[in-house]
Structures are given as structure tokens and as C-alpha cells.
Amino acid sequence: MNSDAIMHFYFFSSSNLCKINLTCIFTIIIFKMKKIVLVISLGFLLMSCGSSFQSFYNNHKADMGATSFQVPNFMKAVLSNISPEVKHAIGNISDFKYIKFEKIDVLRRQNLIAEMSAVTKSGFTDIFRKNESDNTRIISVRELGAVVTDVIIFNSTETETTAYYLQGNFDPDKIKSFTDEATFNNFSNDLMQSYQTNITPSFNPQN
Predict the structure, then answer these.
(1) Are residues 76 and 94 in contact, defined by beta-carbon separation less than 8 angstroms?
(2) Which of 20, 76, 135, 142 yields a CA-CA distance of 20 to 30 A from 117?
(3) Do residues 161 and 100 lie in contact, with contact meaning Cβ atoms separated by under 8 Å?
């Protein structure tokens, strides 16, 4: 084999080897980029899953000083028998969760407010928010067209923090009326009383 043939073979082999190396490098880079995108997407998914009222409820229902209840599926029929006053105040309710915290320190209260703010950023729209050192109040909704389907009402004072989650078919104007604290307090009292009268004494959320 003459020298020209050897040189041609050498350059041909080197060229092919470079192409193979470049292909491998690009393949590795693309693979790593896909892994990064997958990790980022998974992170966002976990964050969105973690920032729901249900996860907030599950994370805190066993906290010391917390009172909580939710309507189990087998008892949701009682919500159709809720008092006319409550139905007039808000509309038809298909799901209902409630949690209350008492005797909590400043740091824990701040953490609860931060967690609820994260929840309301996940597909909800704030229609009212009040941020004061002694009182934080949030009313946030999820809408389907002109109808409100989900409502979160969060109120935190220096002595007590409460969070309500309501699901159903609601009139937006009636939800807006809850920005008046007295109006909402009357509604929540009627709702609790109406719910308790439709369940057995053994399943009393105040016990």
C-alpha cells in the first residue's frame, strides 16, 4: 500500500472517528438536557400537587390545637339538605372542608399564611386580600365561565386561624359579599349549624 493510500485511509478514518465522537457528544448532551427538563417538570408537578387545599388540610389536620373536618363521599348527600338560608347565601355546595388553628405562635401563623398563599396561586384568583399584622384575610376562587366552582376563605388573626374550602356552583356576587367579615361570619355559623343538624351526633365536627 503506497503512502498516498495510507494517508487517505488515515484521514478517512480520523474524519469518521470525529463524526462518531461528535454524534456521541451531541447524543449525551441531548440526553442530559432531557433529564434536566424532566427533573424541572417533575419539580413543577410536585409543587403544584403540594399546593392544593387538600394537601394543606392533610398536612395540618393532625396538628396540636387544630380542629378540622371534611365531608366524606358517603355523606355528601347531606349537603343537598343544607338549610335554605345557606343555599340562598351562596348556592349549591357539593364539597366542604374546614380547619381551624388555635393557640399558635407568630412563626407558625406566618407559615400557615405563606402556605395558603401558595395554595391560592395554584389556579385560583384572589377576589379579596387583606394583609395586616393582626389580620390576614384571603378570599380566592376558581371560575368556570361566569360561575364560581371553588372557593377558599382564609382568615388569620393573632388568636385564631381558619380556612374553608367550598366546591359547587356559586354566584360570584354572593361570594364577593363575603369580603364583609360580619356577612361571612353569619354564613359560616349557619353553614356549620346546618351541616351538624344533618349528620348523626356521633359525627359531630365540634367534638
Answers:
(1) yes
(2) 76
(3) yes
